[in-house]
Amino acid sequence: MRLINNLLILALCLAFASCDEMTEFSPYDANTSQRNQNAENISKIQEELQNSDSLVFIAISDTHSDYSDLRAAVKAINEMEGISFVVVCGDITDWGLSKEFEDYFGLINRLNIPSVTMIGNHDYLSNGKLIFNKLFGPTNFSFDVGNYRMVMFDNVVWENGNQEPDFDWFKEKLDTPEGMTSIACFHIHPWDPQLDNGYADRMREIIENKPVTLSLFGHGHGYKTEEVNNRKYLMVPDISMRNLTKITLANKAAKFQLINY
Amino acid sequence: MKIQFTILLLFFAFASENIFGSGNKDPKIIKDLFSPDYLNFQYAGNLGLASVGVGYLSKNEKHNFGLSYGYLPSSVNSVEVHTVSAKGTFNFRKHHLSKTVFLNGYAGTNLLRSFTHNTYMKFPGHFPSDYYIANAIHLAPFVGIKVGSRKTINKFSYVELGTLDYYLINRFKYKYMKFSDCWNVCMGLTFPLNDPKLLSGKSD
């Protein structure tokens, strides 16, 4: 009896060992399959687009866990020509769980062109910020491509412990060298109550005092454009609306086009 | 991971010797101290790196019920998670592999309540009411197989395939996603505390 029992236990152990990749400890764990994907993709973008005066990219947002729509978007983008990269304006998960991040990454990684992913308020939930840091890198980041600086600003407040966004960083990054202009990207739109307490006003004030060609954001789930004090604002629709926003930058001006897929 | 598994293997080697060994413990004393039927130890699964709990077996031996506490230390992946769980199990028909060993398939679910960063039953006051639903509680269904001694039905080892309510919903919603991706595996063992067959000295 003892021998049979011990052999069976050993068999269970061996079966378990063969399932090593299936071992998980918690839905809230922060294990990631990849690291620093934004930095890796930014290098690819910069290699391709040195000294470029014009730039064409696609912006999508609020993919949450709408995996069918995201998959369709990736397929549509892969069929398009002349697009340099994709910006995802945050909310890539519902609950900030590592499985959701991995599922998102598995789909967005099918793009034939590089993508950069921003954090959204939903992505902060649970241990989402840490997972984002591991998988994609810092939540505030910027990169120069041709004559443009992409400034990806983390302006999530409530889910970030009700903390003030890092406006000093934002201001510093928008302070571009002469001849360059910026594209300011963030997740929470300026009309959202998260940015009450004067945060929206501060953000707009910084944008208006710097050479910002376009401000790009998601969160609102709709498509909206606005021009205030000679500054353009564009809300990118959520992925379930099956629209891609194509943004063309040339001569320090921005044009955008909604493409249904 | 390999180090953890080696520790686990050593633990099981130790446990198998003690559980399935001759056993010099007086079960009546144990029964007086604890009312649950068994003490449960588990490695991995949705409860943490390791968990400990107590379990009860129904009189007809068809159902188990357990309460567990699991812990994931920050040294593993930089996050600390505490989890408490209520576990309900339905046992399928028992197979007797020999005069002394049984094999039993089962299915059930854990109700998990986890404590970690930005995880709440009720979100803090600066959020508008009903902005989010609770993200600290989940159902975690599982299927498993246990092997144990027919002499003492409350001592057994088990392997489970578990998932999470939210993962399953997404897999059914998006059929092209790999169904196998949402499952994880865990293993555990029990120590009898209150085994009627052990107490009466009977064996089947």
Fold and architecture overview:
The complex is a heterodimer of chains A (about 260) and B (about 200). Chain A contains seven helices and eleven strands. With about 260 residues, chain A is of the alpha/beta class. Chain A has one domain: Metallo-dependent phosphatases (Purple Acid Phosphatase, chain A, domain 2). The radius of gyration of chain A is 21 Å and the shape is globular. In chain A, about 50% of the residues are buried. The model of chain A has no long low-confidence stretch (mean pLDDT about 95). Chain B is of the alpha+beta class and about 200 residues long. Chain B has one domain (about 1-195): Beta Barrel (Porin). Chain B has an eight-stranded antiparallel β-barrel. Chain B is globular, with a radius of gyration of 19 Å. The relative contact order of chain B is 0.18. Classes of the chains: A alpha/beta (about 260), B alpha+beta (about 200). Chains A and B meet through helix 1, helix 3 and helix 5 of A and helix 1, strand 5, strand 6, strand 7 and helix 4 of B.
